[in-house]
């Protein structure tokens, strides 16, 4: 499950998370705040909850959070500042052992949103690409890519092509909003 949870501002965020996330092996959240309700959900349903705070709002840090049914053997937090608003966006790379002895790399990203051109956007992808290049095994890269322009989409596709990734289509159902597509990339070994 991949979801920009928007700092838990939707009234029904917890019921949606429980409905879609309680049986998932991995949950990748963006703009997650470590509120008591989210911490309780994470500790009840998952062995591991890792977060990279992008910034601290009153009382609770906010950033990407990965919930997993297994403990990671590696974690790498990454941050990049929005050039216009000076707020940070974060990414988290975690690696999990698989039953077949391989290691699964999971990249949870909340990409830079407010920038002119794609230089900062591409810069944020650079360290992620280095990690992927040094990993031997499957990779899942998902999150809020903020790919709202043709230039950003092209930068993302160039990144994916450089690291041998294939685009995956995922769908989520929300009773209020119908079915919405989301994008992710997987790197095949």
From TrEMBL:
Q: Name one GO molecular function term.
A: catalytic activity
Please indicate which superkingdom the organism of origin belongs to: Bacteria
Q: Which residues form the Endonuclease/exonuclease/phosphatase domain?
A: 1-156
- What is any Pfam family matched here? Exo_endo_phos
- InterPro entries on file: Endo/exonu/phosph_ase_sf (IPR036691), Endo/exonuclease/phosphatase (IPR005135)
NCBIfam families associated with the record: PRK05421.1-1, PRK05421.1-2, PRK05421.1-3
What protein does this entry describe?
Uncharacterized protein conserved in bacteria
- Say which species the protein is native to: Serratia odorifera
